[in-house]
C-alpha cells in the first residue's frame, strides 16, 4: 500500500467517524454554512498577470514537519496583504497536521478572499463540512477518485455553491476527469510515486486543457522565471505552500516573490 492509498483508507475511516459525531443537518446550522462564497476562478480568469494561491501547510508525509511555529490567522493575513489571489488551508490532521480549527482561524481573519479546503475528498459529507467551515472551493484529486465519483462530487459541490479544483498528474487523469462541473484544473508537478517534481508536467498538459477551464500549476514552484514561463503556457494561478512555509515569515516570502515577478516582467518586457 503506497502513501496515497494509506491516506485514502484513513480518510474513509475519518469520514465515518465524523458522520457518527455530527449530522449533515447539524453542519447546515453552522455559522458559515450560508455564507456567500467568493469565486477564485473568476479572479484568476480576469487577471492580466500571474497570481499566487498561497497555502498554509504545517507538514507533509514526504517532508515531515515543514513549519509548526506559525499561526494560521497571521500567516494567511500576511499572504493577503502580500497580494495572494486566494488561500489554501490544509484540513487533514493525520498526514498534514491540518485541522478545521486552522481553517476557521484563517476564514475569520480573511473574510474577503476565496479559500480552498485542501483535503482528500472522498465523500459528499465532506462537502457539507467544507461549507460549514466557510470554504469557497474544494479539491478533487483524480488520482484517488473514479471519473464517476468526480462527476457526482463536483455536481454536489456546485449545488452547495462551492467551486471545484480538479487536480491531475498526467494525460490519462486529465482525459478521464474533465467535465462541465470543473471550474479550475490544477496540474500537480509532483510524481506521486517518487515525489519528485518537474514543471515539464504542466508544460506537457497545458495544450490539452481547453480554454474553458482556468489552469493553475502546483508543486515545485520556487522562482519568478518558472512562474512566468508557465504563465506563457496559459497558467493563470500558481499554488505555492512549502516554498513559503519553510521560511520564518511566509508572508514576506510571498511579498519577495511578487517583487521578483514584477521585476522580471519589466526586464523581459512581457505583455501580461
UniProtKB/TrEMBL annotation:
Residues 4-256 form the Indole-3-glycerol phosphate synthase domain. GO terms for molecular function: indole-3-glycerol-phosphate synthase activity. It catalyses: 1-(2-carboxyphenylamino)-1-deoxy-D-ribulose 5-phosphate + H(+) = (1S,2R)-1-C-(indol-3-yl)glycerol 3-phosphate + CO2 + H2O. It holds the Pfam family IGPS. It comes from the Bacteria. SUPFAM superfamilies: Ribulose-phoshate binding barrel (SSF51366). The keyword Lipid biosynthesis does not apply. Keywords: Amino-acid biosynthesis, Aromatic amino acid biosynthesis, Decarboxylase, Lyase, Tryptophan biosynthesis. Belongs to the TrpC family. This is Indole-3-glycerol phosphate synthase.
